[in-house]
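User: Predict the complex with nicotinamide-adenine-dinucleotide.
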Amino acid sequence: MRLKDKVALVTGAGQGIGRGIARMFAREGARLVLAARSQDKLARLESELSAAGTPVLAQATDVAVRGQMEALFAAAAERFGHLDVLVNNAGVGLGTPVDKVRDEDYDRVINTNLRGMHLGCHLAVPLMRRAGKGSIINISSVHGVEGSPGNTVYAATKGGIIGATRALAAELAPDFIRVNVISPGAIYLGGDQGYGPPAGLTPEAEEEYRRRWGDENRVVHRYYQPLEVVGEPVDIAYLAVYLATDESRFVTGQDITVDGGLTTYLADFPRPDLREKRDRDREEMRRFVEANQKPS
Ligand SMILES: NC(=O)c1ccc[n+]([C@@H]2O[C@H](COP(=O)([O-])OP(=O)(O)OC[C@H]3O[C@@H](n4cnc5c(N)ncnc54)[C@H](O)[C@@H]3O)[C@@H](O)[C@H]2O)c1
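Assistant: Here is the predicted structure with nicotinamide-adenine-dinucleotide placed in the model:
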């Protein structure tokens, strides 16, 4: 087990990439502190991981709120005494053109993605000093380095995370605290996160749709980038494990992209040949849905 007895704190752990990282850290023997806003999702994950023997402290926490983050890190210190690994994963997006962005949305995205990461690092450092070393893993995005319409605020936070990571890596090196970024590309988050057959199908057709495609999102995700592979939370989690272990003791201040080649591809994406396949898949699904509506 590569993380045996390490204490790792993961934010935004209730679902998606954070949950994937928490599960893999547990498999590798870590003791876990898990934070997310939804108590329900945290409780489900806590009972799943505890049942498999992982010591878990789960606490509903809004990463943007200093008081809640202080309470989380205090509880972690009391339970485990120190911290070896912090994954600042909690994040929100905003797909809005700049002239339509409302101040409250701007504040929410900046506060979650940037202030949340800042508070995590700010509170983790004293606990990592107690351990004599540590690894901070900040989750950014390909949007931190590439532009796309409607993403100015999100991109500002994700670029900010990369800049802050480089500065922190230099600042914390004397303490042997390493700080790195993982920048995911398109990561498919799974059928329990609201994807699935569209509304209005007959029950038999719903079953058939699931059998054939799972959900449309899964099918089209593999055409997002040069590698015809569906990126999933485990793809991020494998790298997070490496960065959390001492195997990466010589790696700090890096932004490591996990994106199926998306950011290496200078032309439009999907790849032209994959675009045709994607359009064929979409058309087949559209025809299926049209032909299988419940009678009204
Ligand atoms: N899925 C992708 O394709 C993708 C791509 C690039 C980067 N990312 C980044 O990965 C990270 C995880 O996102 P995901 O894709 O798993 O999406 P997700 O929405 O499933 O997960 C985000 C998690 O963060 C939590 N969260 C949001 N605001 C919070 C707050 N204020 N306090 C505490 N928790 C909060 C949510 O409750 C959720 O558990 C994010 O930082 C996201 O920007 C995702």
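The beta strands are 7-11, 31-36, 56-60, 85-88, 134-139, 177-184, 255-258.
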